[in-house]
Design goal:
Helices cover about 25% and strands about 25% of the residues. It is of the alpha/beta class. Helix 3 runs parallel beside helix 4 (about 115-120).
């Protein structure tokens, strides 16, 4: 592995520390190197707060060394005024002569403009070190800006014989399929994404809270599709304890922590729903059920990753799990359960 790759790997490690806290911004890490030694580093810690480059430059004990150093950053430095000033300007003002970038920023207000600004100032700029890894880290961000929709993650649990649920005509209460370790992992994932979506039947029959309880982290926006508003007011998802969005065909005034978004149910609602999330800066959404909703996303191809938890039990009959094809990108054994992660080809 070359030295630039080693330093870029460090940028990626730092960037990951911002997981769950920076959306809709990307996760970015930065290191400053003098004579093959890191003299400063930083990452984007929280949305609206200083970017990785700012934190890295501020961390350098002897600022005079900046004029003889190389700055490594996993994503192109910004060139516009947003919540914070342009990072490319700070790099220029700091007289850093050499900048190595993992990948170009797809955001239209940046998209090569930061690189151009630094080059015009006489800075030597290299682009593309560990580019695939840098894009992979921020796949939610890239999907959001390149496809103009949030990154869609599907999640379900199924039995060894391929059932996602029991027959609710015979058993009205939900049956837990996986184990406590799997449950904690699900809650960890919730804390890392922007929103979580379910259908009406899941809300009515399972009465989930859709909150982060088994992990310490942020609470995603709870979302449910309820065309005719048949959910009972006593359901957990309507308890006003967390921001909740309801997609419906009716015009309904918002309430405390409750927002109603109207869709045209005479047409395919998934593109409408994803467009509404894009307009509201929702970077990612986990679809947790039910089976009809999951199959709709699969059929439309509007999904990016699927997390399939397989428990150590049989139902014999019930609701069959969705059929999915794609690339298995990860596998994990969780005691007596298994997790397969599948990417959409």
């Amino acid at each position: 592995m070359s030295l630039p790759e080693i330093f870029m790997h460090r940028c990626l490690d730092l960037a990951l520390l911002g997981m769950g806290d920076v959306a809709p911004n990307p996760m970015v890490g930065c290191v400053i190197v003098h004579n093959k030694t890191i003299i400063g580093e930083g990452y984007h810690q929280e949305f609206g707060q200083p970017h990785a480059e700012v934190n890295a430059i501020r961390s350098v004990m002897n600022p005079e060394l900046l004029a003889q150093s190389t700055l490594y950053v996993s994503l192109e430095p910004c060139s516009h005024f947003g919540k914070t000033p342009p990072c490319s300007d700070l790099i220029i003002q700091s007289c850093i002569p050499h900048v190595v970038i993992g990948t170009v920023d797809p955001f239209t207000k940046v998209a090569g403009k930061g690189i151009e600004r630094m080059q015009k100032a006489g800075i030597e700029v290299e682009v593309g070190v560990l580019e695939n890894e840098c894009r992979q880290l921020n796949r939610r961000f890239f999907t959001f800006h390149e496809k103009r929709r949030p990154y869609v993650l599907l999640k379900w649990a199924q039995t060894l014989d391929g059932f996602i649920d029991t027959d609710r005509t015979e058993m009205q209460h939900p049956t837990w399929i996986t184990n406590d370790l799997s449950k904690r992992l699900v809650h960890k994932q919730r804390s890392e994404e922007s929103a979580i979506l379910i259908g009406t039947n899941t809300a009515v029959y399972d009465n989930p809270a859709l909150t982060v309880r088994e992990w310490t982290g942020n609470q995603p926006i709870r979302m449910v599709i309820d065309r005719t508003r048949r959910m009972d007011a006593g359901l957990h998802i309507l308890d006003s304890k967390a921001p909740t969005w309801i997609f419906t065909e009716k015009e309904i005034p918002d309430a405390e922590n409750l927002q109603f978004i109207r869709l045209d149910f005479t047409h395919n609602i998934l593109p409408q729903l994803l467009a509404a999330l894009y307009e509201r800066n929702i970077l990612s959404v986990i679809v947790e059920g039910g089976c009809i909703l999951l199959k709709s996303f699969l059929k439309s191809g509007l999904w990016d990753e699927a997390f399939i938890y397989t428990g150590n039990q049989f139902f014999g009959k019930g609701v069959e799990a969705p059929h999915i094809t794609g690339h298995i990108s990860a596998f994990e054994k969780l005691d007596d359960c298994k997790l397969h992660v599948i990417r959409n080809r």
